[in-house]
Amino acid sequence: MVTNGGNFMFVKLQIQEFPKYELSNVFSLLPRDNQLYDVLQALKRLGKIAIEYY
To answer: Which residues lie closer than 8 Å to 20 by C-beta, 6 or more apart?
Structure first.
């Protein structure tokens, strides 16, 4: 996850012979296009993955 506090972007690494990165859309928490629920949903999923992995 990359953030500046108001915008969020998620980065996914695909482990292959040549590693490949994929970038998500930029999610904004500004009032006019509040995407807080989208960001929270992604963080919740990452939390579940982390708990299962460790």
So the answer is: 13, 14
